[in-house]
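Bit of a strange request maybe. I'm writing a small parser for structure token strings and I need a real example to test against, not something I typed by hand. Could someone generate the tokens for this chain?
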Amino acid sequence: MSAAAPTDSSGRILTSFPPLALGAAQALSAAMSLQGARPYNEDRLGYSGRTDSACWALADGLGGHKGGAFAAELAVQAALQSAGRSSAPRIEDRLKQAVSDAHAGIRAEQKINAEFTDMRSTLVLFGISAADMAWAHCGDSRFYHFRGGRMVLRTKDHSAVQMLVAAGEVAEEDIPMHPGRSRLVSCLGSSNSLLISARSTGAAPVAGDVFLLCSDGMWEHFDKGGLEALVSSASGPEDLLARLDAQIVAAEHPEQDNYSAVAVFVTAV
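Reply from user aminoacidic:
Good idea to test on real output. This should exercise your parser:
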């Protein structure tokens, strides 16, 4: 089964996905996307499930390029279709190909639709089975892995400011406030070389694992400690998303970007 989460007339997405059996555990998941202070929502979310594995997708259409929402929609649909039909035995390989196929789909649409020749999008994917977990991304939409309430992994953004962090010129905690934070060095739909980061854990998920996919409008509000506290106190994916939303709403940021997240909890059966 493959499906993009529908957006209502207010640009709001709130949905739960089917549980996935993982042997002695199960994966429960939900997604949320809100418009914020923007006139429309250019984030898109989706899910693709097999009998033995599943894939979640989150894309953020670039607001400075016409057709951002269309690009994000194409990215999610193409990636989930690619992952769903792939015969590759390794999840990591399926996700890498899915990102590449999503980019190719956007590039093909640019060539036949003059209105959207500059459309761009980020994309982050997460796949899981009873034996393995993997992620892949392009752009600055992020993937987080928490175990026992502690963050054990965060993807590195494909952005100019992330390169400055790697060079020791900017502190990690200063990324959300940096003026060049939104300048990407790679994204779907760009004519530049496509950068795909992917990784497999090579290990089975365990009860207590929590995974989070976020657009930048979401993650810019939370540091490592803040996310760990929310994950530790949440009773499940819907509860975690509600807690994230509550903090963003309480901040009352007058220029709040679209903000979206997918939460996946592994629990004992």
